[in-house]
Design brief:
Helix content is about 50%, strand content about 20%. It is an alpha+beta fold. It has two domains: about 35 residues, no CATH class; about 150 residues, MucB/RseB, C-terminal domain (Phosphorylase Kinase, domain 1, 2-Layer Sandwich).
Length: about 260
């Protein structure tokens, strides 16, 4: 079994998820997965996510594309198609990055400890607070942006997620291991909250493609760009969060400077 386990590569795992292996190789990979429960669990989780994304966005992408007569009325449909296309294009990135580390050392552990876990914990603590969910409200957004930028020595601003149907509530500065972090909070039309967590990340680990992690009932999409780590956290569906994460990624990328 050890020789067989070593023979299973990332390429094999990718092809297994996509249903592109021969019958013989599929059986061999499944035998390997039987002795690697963590890898098997992540493949199952990914397949659930993949199914949700296709269920949500395939009907939109399948609609015929016509030149809009009324641009104003067509804006919502166009945005929906763009969001759907972006989400589906990111599926392959999710598979590739979540599979890395299965055949070697756990390369994501520093990010989990310094970014994902504190981001999820901060979300649990403050998103359920009915009186003081934020330190600085949205009405003072300029002051909030200036404050977190000064304390974190990086130009930061709360991403505008209004196109995604999210209203900005406000934010706060947080301690996070040996560094400061910023939390920006949003709320959708149903009163469900979502947070964007930002902090500096030490070390050489960098990945600009999205990673996905479940923390209890929470879904977390996270990435590291230059010296900054970002996490989008919420109880919303993974398909919903990936569109938000894409908007955050596009918003913050130009302003994340080196340490």
């Amino acid at each position: 079994m050890s020789k067989q386990a070593k023979a299973v590569s990332d390429h094999d795992l990718h092809a297994y998820v996509d249903g592109e292996l021969s019958e013989k190789r599929r059986v061999e990979v499944e035998a390997w997965l039987a002795s690697h429960p963590e890898a098997a669990a992540r493949i199952r989780d990914y397949r659930v996510l993949q199914k949700r994304l296709h269920t949500r966005f395939d009907p939109v992408l399948a609609e015929p594309v016509e030149l809009p007569v009324d641009i104003g009325c067509s804006r919502g449909l166009m945005l929906a198609r763009v969001a759907g296309f972006a989400a589906l294009m990111l599926v392959s990135a999710l598979v590739g990055w979540t599979m890395k580390g299965w055949n070697g050392a756990p390369t994501l552990s520093p990010a989990l400890a310094d970014l994902v876990q504190p981001a999820a914990f901060a979300h649990q603590v403050y998103s359920t607070d009915t009186r003081y969910p934020v330190e600085i409200p949205a009405l003072k957004q300029a002051s909030l942006n200036r404050w977190v930028s000064q304390r974190m020595h990086t130009a930061l601003r709360a991403p505008d997620l209004s196109v995604q149907g999210l209203q900005f509530i406000g934010g706060r500065l947080l301690p996070s291991t040996n560094r400061m972090a910023a939390q920006f909070m949003y709320e959708d039309g149903q009163g469900q909250r979502l947070t964007v967590y930002v902090r500096r990340i030490a070390g050489e680990q960098r990945f600009t493609d999205f990673q996905y992690r479940e923390q209890g009932d929470l879904h977390v999409f996270y990435w590291i760009d230059k010296a900054m780590g970002y996490a989008v956290v919420g109880e919303q569906s993974a398909a919903r969060l990936i569109a938000v994460a894409n908007a955050v990624h596009n918003s913050v990328k130009p302003i994340a400077g080196p340490e």
